[in-house]
Design brief:
Length: 76
């Protein structure tokens, strides 16, 4: 695959009650879950410095940041 065909997008994986959810941003998480459910507010989660090497975990959830690899759609 050529370099120009690769695309990377941030994906946030949230595990709550053994169920898995995927989001495109931290803000999108809070459209589905509230701070009480997750045990952490939006501002505090932003301050954690979430990264692929540094997930966030508490007794309510696990939140991981990753990269979704895609390729460009070919026309024709």
């Amino acid at each position: 695959m050529e370099e120009k065909d690769k695309k990377e997008r941030t994906v946030i994986h949230v595990e709550v009650n053994e169920k898995h959810y995927y989001f495109g941003s931290l803000a999108a998480i809070y459209e589905v879950f509230d701070s009480k459910t997750l045990g952490i507010g939006y501002g505090a989660l932003r301050n954690v410095g979430l990264s692929p090497q540094k997930p966030y975990q508490n007794k309510h959830c696990i939140i991981r940041k990753g990269v979704l690899l895609t390729i460009s759609k070919k026309n024709g």
